[in-house]
Amino acid sequence: MMRSRVPQRALVGPVSDGMVIGMATRKVTVTLEESQLDAIRKLVDAGSAASVSGFVQHAVSVALDDVAGWGALLAEALRETGGPLTDGERAWADELLGTRRRRRGSAA
User: Fold this and answer.
1) How far apart are CA 98 and CA 78, in angstroms?
2) pTM more than 0.85
3) Fewer Cβ within 10 Å of end Cβ, the chain: N or C?
């Protein structure tokens, strides 16, 4: 299968043979649904993504930015409404929502 070269403006920064230039990286194993991997490979074949790794790196970057954005939004909302929940407020909300609180530092 011939893969087309992707312009540098594609999903990730400057690339050279599918690797991002100037960034320390570490290889990891990620489990995806087959349909997700097929969709990513189609994007790579169409030239819309530099590589599967490049697509995943971009997706992780977007997700991290999203989490940071929600964190900032939450912090601002808390400032405007009197600060973080008290233990009593949190217990009330957990009971109302039917959630169980995890202890800090416990495995996910």
Assistant:
1) 22
2) no
3) C
> How many helices and strands in the chain, by DSSP H and E?
3, 2
- H helix runs in 1-51, sequence order: 34-45
Alpha helices, H only, the chain = 34-45, 52-80, 87-97
Helix (H) or strand (E) holding 27, with range, is none
Q: Which residue has the higher pLDDT, 32 or 17?
A: 32
Q: What's the pLDDT tens digit per position in 71-103? A: 888 889 988 998 888 899 889 989 998 887 665
